[in-house]
Design brief:
This protein is 17% helix and 31% strand. The chain has 216 residues and is α+β, with helices and mostly antiparallel strands. A seven-stranded antiparallel beta sheet has the order 1-2-11-8-13-6-3, covered by helices on one side. The protein binds N-(carboxycarbonyl)-S-(naphthalen-2-ylmethyl)-L-cysteine and fe (iii) ion.
């Protein structure tokens, strides 16, 4: 291998620390992608992507669905986890084994043993979709880590502090990157900048993000 290729190969699988308890595992999900993509079709055939309304009355630009025992939802009454998809009246589709295996392996690689998620939020970003700065506060146990998997187009993630006005660090999240955070970083503000349209070879003009949590 040429030295530049060797460097790129290492870069592809690097481990980057974003905060005291936040790691970016570059390319960690790449070996799983061929199995993950057909799972997305199965999940969305049961519970399609939809744009939900926030308690403030805004329609989210990000479309979402869920798999696993619990799914994250929002409407005019608030944010919460439910076992039933409010649009279908049926349970959310079950979490594919390969999803749970990937989440568990990534958590272990980042130093969190025995992560067994019961919820997987699947976010779909079309060009222009964004997620404004927020905290994830709807889960029961803040000691459990969260694992996020990025697929498709590259997004710019914003990583803030514990106050809304704290400065943010911007991080590019590419196809196959996995982020794991917990502990003291669990309640940090974060968001995603409006998605630029640079079509991806496998997924086209979209970004799909899985966020695994222990919600119940
Ligand atoms: C929390 N999703 O669904 S990954 C969300 O890319 C969400 O779809 C984003 O924020 C997405 O709630 C970001 C989740 C994430 C990543 C890093 C964090 C949440 C974080 C760091 C600290 C706290
Ligand atoms: Fe979040």
């Amino acid at each position: 291998m040429q030295s530049l290729e060797l460097f790129e190969a290492i870069e592809q699988n690097s481990c980057q620390r974003l905060g005291p308890a936040t790691m970016v595992l570059r390319g960690f999900a790449v070996p799983y992608v061929r199995e993950l993509i057909p799972c997305i079709q199965v999940i969305t055939a049961i519970s399609p992507f939809r744009q939900m309304v926030t308690p403030g009355g805004f329609t989210m630009s990000v479309a979402l669905t869920n798999c696993g025992a619990l799914g994250w939802t929002t409407d005019r009454r608030g944010y919460r986890y439910t076992s039933i998809d409010p649009d279908t009246g049926k349970p959310w589709p079950s979490m594919p084994k390969v999803f749970a295996q990937l989440a568990n392996a990534a958590a272990t690689a980042a130093g969190f043993d025995n992560f067994q998620p019961d919820a997987c939020l699947v976010n779909r970003y079309a060009p222009g979709a964004r997620l404004s700065l927020h905290q994830d506060k709807n889960e029961r146990d803040y000691d459990e880590p969260i694992v996020s998997v990025s697929l498709g187009m590259t997004a710019t993630f914003m990583f803030g502090g514990h106050e809304r006005n704290d400065p943010t660090v911007k991080v590019q999240l590419n196809h196959g990157d996995v982020m794991v955070w917990g502990g003291v970083d669990r309640l940090r503000y974060h968001g995603v900048m409006p998605l630029k349209d640079n079509p991806h070879s496998l997924l086209g003009s979209q970004r799909i993000n899985f966020t695994f949590r222990k919600a119940g």
